[in-house]
Amino acid sequence: MFSWLATGGMVLSLLAPTNPVVDFPEPATPPPGQIVIDLVTVNGSGCPAGTAATAMSADNTAFTVTYSAFIAQVGVGAGPTDWRRNCQLNLRVHVPQGFTYAVAQADYRGFAALADGASGVERANYYFQGMSPTAYTTHTFAGPMVDNWQATDITDVASLVWHPCGEFRNFNINTELWALAGTSDTSTTTSFMTMDSTDGAISTTYNLAWKTCP
């Protein structure tokens, strides 16, 4: 099942993934050499063309998704559909022969400016191509708030969903941001929730677990 950590907010709902558990031998370390990750397709109102990028860590224990135009807003200056933004990424991780991986932890970060009575929501799920998606994890942050936010989803070892050994399946990530007016006065205030920054993009990190294939 999933557990959670969040700063500046609370969790709304958190469900375990429905994919079957596969037993693999434990590796001592991640695979050697630099793992390559490709961003195959990008779709959604929160990540227009050229505004999302990915990078693998040097030790192959995590990959990062960076956004530069991911913002949901409501109130003065916002359009009627601006309250919700989404992004769907399709990634190809070039897994070395004899290894498989799962996402053990996802760290989401951004900035929120929420008026009194408003709230911001971050929700996400992910899955391998051709497999059942994990349940959405949803975190909400209540106004008044003007601060950075962070939400972390952790998967128990027994519930990790592994990339099928010897197969080529892309990894899909679906992320949403909501800015909800609630009881705030939208005629005089603007509330927004971002996964971006004017001085450098905010990164979302997916921490990997590696195992050797049987």
What does this molecule look like?
Strands 1, 4, 5, 6, 8, 11, 13 and 14 form an 8-stranded antiparallel β-sheet that branches. The relative contact order is 0.31. The chain is elongated. It is built from no helices and 14 strands. The model is unreliable at 1-25 and 197-201 (pLDDT under 50). With 214 residues, it is mainly β. Strand 4 and strand 5 (62-67) form a beta hairpin.
Quick overview:
The chain is mainly β and about 210 residues long.
Could you tell me the number of beta strands?
A: 14
Oligomer: single chain
By DSSP (H or I, 4+ residues per run), the number of helices equals 0
State the helical fraction.
under 10%
Tell me the β content: over 45%
